[in-house]
Amino acid sequence: MPTPHIRAERGEIAPRVIMPGDPRRAERIATDYLEDAELVTDVRGVLGFTGTWEGRPVTAMASGMGGPSITIYATELAREYGVEQIVRVGTAGGMSTDVVVRDVIIATGAHTDSGMTASRIPGVHFSHLADFGLARAAIEAAERLEGDAAVHAGAVFTSDHFYLERPELSAALTAHGTLAVEMEAAALYAVGAAERIRTLAVVTVSDHLVTGESMTAEERETQFDAAARIALSL
């Protein structure tokens, strides 16, 4: 049965979901990577396509921006469509000088100051962790990947704010090994823990808080081949 936010029928969404934030990026993944991809949902302009990658069914579906949005879609996919794993493929802002624009980060964990998890388990500082098996497989896939993109594994910071500048917080997080900031990983990992599904975020550094380097809007949509290939291999 369709949900309030997904119009697909049961069976039209694959057990494996690749989840960018941008609907156009979901469409590009379907067009450029999947075979026999068909549109299965477009509620509120959030596009989802199901096809195959190397003979295995996979759905490429957008999540929108931010923790609340990805929580809605990931929860409905897990509960109503039997999805077993969701891999976020998105962008992030570099925080550490160990990463540069166009690098790929396999987010093994996600710090956050969002209230999304605090409301789940009041009084507990919940640890937002990727599925270990997926993270390990992603690191192994990255080692086999051909191309110029450098791939890192480590923690990211999930923020509810896109424009709020907090240099002291950024410095403290970087001093503790945080590689980049984005807006969805912690919420996705919390859904994974609650719904017992495998979750991972593989993000491309689209801009850098320290160096000021940044991709264009078009590059943000198109320059994610390495991350997409890693995610699709899982």
Describe this entry's structure for a reader:
The model has no long low-confidence stretch (mean pLDDT 94). The protein has helices at 23-32, 67-81, 115-118, 132-144, 167-175, 185-195, 217-222, 225-232; strands at residues 16-19, 35-41, 48-53, 56-61, 85-94, 104-112, 151-158, 180-182, 198-208. It contains 8 helices and 9 strands. Helix 2 (67-81) runs parallel beside helix 6. It has a single domain (16-232), classed as Rossmann fold (3-Layer(aba) Sandwich). It is α/β, with parallel strands linked by helices.
What is this structure, in a nutshell?
With about 230 residues, the protein is an alpha/beta fold.
Q: Residue ranges: pLDDT <50 for 5 or more in a row?
A: none
- CATH fold assignment: Rossmann fold
Number of domains: 1
Task: Tell me the β content.
Answer: 25-35%
Keywords:
Uridine phosphorylase; alpha/beta; purine-nucleoside phosphorylase activity; five-stranded mixed β-barrel; 9 strands; Rossmann fold; Nucleoside_phosphorylase_d; uridine phosphorylase activity; 234 residues
Task: Please describe the topology of this protein.
Blueprint: E1 16-19, H1 23-32, E2 35-41, E3 48-53, E4 56-61, H2 67-81, E5 85-94, E6 104-112, H3 115-118, H4 132-144, E7 151-158, H5 167-175, E8 180-182, H6 185-195, E9 198-208, H7 217-222, H8 225-232
Parallel strand pairs: 1-4, 1-5, 5-9, 6-7, 7-8
Antiparallel strand pairs: 2-3, 3-4, 5-8, 6-9
